[in-house]
Input
Amino acid sequence: MKKDTTIVNAGRHPDRNHGFVNPSITRGSTVVFESMEAFEYAVKNRYDAYIYGRFGTPTSKAFEEAMAELEGGTDTVRSIAVSSGIGAITAVLISHLEAGDHLLAPDNVYGPVRNLSDNLLKRFGVETSFYDPLAGPAIEEQIRENTALIYVEAPGSLTMEMPDVPAITKVARGRGIITAFDNTWATPYFFQPFEHGIDVSIQAATKYIVGHSDAMLGVITMPLKNFEPIKTTANFLGACPAPEDCYLGLRGLRTLGVRLRQHQKNALFVAKWLDDRPEVSRVLYPGLPGNPGHELWKRDFKGATGLLSIVLNDYPKKAVDAMIGGYTLFGLGASFGGYESLVLPVRVDALRTATQWKPEGPGVRFHVGLEDTEDLIADLKAGFERLEAASSGS
Ligand SMILES: *Cc1c(COP(=O)(O)O)cnc(C)c1O
Output
C-alpha cells in the first residue's frame, strides 16, 4: 500500500472496538486473568499479550503497530512507543553500549544527546567521539576497535548539514557496527531509514507525528530480531508512554501526509524568499535547490519538512534579539513539528568539539507552520525592518 493509505489504516481495528473507528484510550496498571493458564501465557508472552500497564496497553500497541507499518511493515520491523524522544534515544544507546565501548556521534547532534554522552554514558564507562556533520565514507578513519554504535542524524540539528547516510551505514555494516538514526526531521513519511542500511530508527514523535504541540512521545523501530533487548531496556527505564499521548500520536499520524506536504510547500516558499533577502547570508535547508546538502537530500529523501535555518550577515546581538523577539506569528520557543510557526536563535559555536562552526553572522532557526505564507512573509519582513532599525541605531 502507498504511504497515505498506510497512515490512514495502520493500527486500526474497529472490530476490537465495538466498530468505533479509533481505539479507546485504555488507562491501566493491573490486568486480571480468568485462569492460571491465561496468566502463565501472558507472563511468557509479556511483550505481546497484556500483562501489566508498563508493558503496553491497547492504545500504545495500536500506535506502535501503526508506526511499524509506516517504517516498513510489521512483518519485518517492530516499534516501541516511549514517553519522549530523548527517552527513545537513551533506551537505544544503553541497550547497545556497555563499559569500555566507544560511541560515534555527529558534531551537530541534537544537544541533549551530547549532554547524555558527556554525562550519563561517560559515568558508565562509554566514551563518545564526534564526527564531521558532512561525514561520508571517511567516517571509517574514526572507527576504533571498540566502536559499538554510530549515531546518525540527517539533516543535523540547527545547522542542517547533510551526511551521506548510505555511505556511513555501508562502513558500519562492513565492521559489524550498529547504526541508530534520529529521523525526527523527515519522519518515516519522507525518509525510510531501513532502506538506507540503518539498524535502529528513532523518532521524537513529539514533533511531526503528534503534530499539534500537545504531547511528549518517542518511538523506536527495529528489525524483529532486535526488539527484545531494546524493549527490555525501555521497560527498565520505566519509559512507558501515557495512553492519552499514544492516542494523540495516532491521531496526529492520520494527517501526517497532508500536513507534511503543506509544511514542505510553505517552507520552500519561505526559504526561497529568505534566500533573496539582503540581510541573509545563507539559507540552511536541504530542500532548497543549490543548497550544499541538496543533492544528497534529493537522492535519499522523498520530501523536506518545515524546519530550516539561516545565517544572517554580521549584525549585532541586540538587533538580532529585536528581530527574533518581535514576531507575531513565529513564536519564540523550542521544538518544532506542530502546526504553528516558531523561531529560535542558533548558538552552537561553543558546542562543537570535532569541527568548527564559525559562521559569518548570527544563526536563526525557523519552523515554518501551516499559516498562509503571505502572512508569514509579512511577519518576517517586519522582523528584518526591526533588525535594520536596531543595528543602525547602535
Ligand atoms: C526534539 C528532538 C528530540 C527529543 O524529543 P523529545 O520528545 O523532546 O524528548 C530528539 N531528536 C531531535 C532531532 C529532536 O528535534
Observations:
- The two ends are 59 Å apart (CA to CA).
- The mean pLDDT is 97.
